[in-house]
Amino acid sequence: MASETTDLEQAAPVIERAAQAITGATCVLFDFDGPICGLFAEHRAHDIADRLIAWLARRGLAVRMPQEDRQDPHAVLRAIGDSHPDSGLVRELEAALTDEELRAARTAAPTPHVDDLIREWSARGTPLAIATNNSPRAAHAYLSQRGLAPCFDRHVYGRTADLDRLKPDPDCLNRALRALDADPAKSLMIGDTPSDLEAAGRAGVAFLGYAKDARRVTRLREAGAEAVVGSLGEVLELIGGSAG
Length: 244
Prior knowledge:
Layout: H1 2-11, H2 19-23, E1 27-30, E2 37-38, H3 45-57, H4 73-83, H5 88-105, E3 109-110, H6 114-123, E4 128-131, H7 136-146, H8 149-152, E5 156-157, H9 171-180, E6 187-191, H10 194-203, E7 206-210, H11 214-223, E8 228-229, H12 233-238
Parallel strand pairs: 1-4, 1-6, 4-5, 6-7, 7-8
Antiparallel strand pairs: 2-3
Helix pairs in contact: 1-11, 3-4, 3-5, 4-5, 5-7
């Protein structure tokens, strides 16, 4: 417990390294699951992965992948995309995952301080977008139920049928940047995984890591993230809002 506290305390001052990118951002891109909400707070990701694997088994398909990956629904989808590219099976499985994410969105847990942060940036006229590997339908549904949809003006860029374009490919970031006519060099991405970090780098966008525990802090730092925060309240305070 002491080690975790120390790691998170060390993460907080690092925001100073990203202060200019945060306060000077003319466009902000958010990953969805993590920085915006805990999408699978009640509908657990490993349970969804189990249901997808069972769905495939009923069609006579066995999923061969590491046990750890079998707990990740996106990893299951990628595995089938690799083994059955451009097939109807992939489209059906993606649709099944979208249905699961839509159900999960109804009970997703808001990330602390992010609603206020989004509203503060929006009130200042900063264009906002979501760039995610989740279904854009799930992200839209969640934003609508939280009253945040107007802040994004429908700028949600998520998973498509082309699984090769999932992050770390920067496709969803590039789609957002083009739609907002944003300069990547003046934009900021807030994400919580190494794939977010890599996608931001490939898109030429500054990156701020969000990590709610020491394990995630370590994972982002080992991937090369220079700025990682344990609370988005720090970002809110930095841009002049109140973290309550």
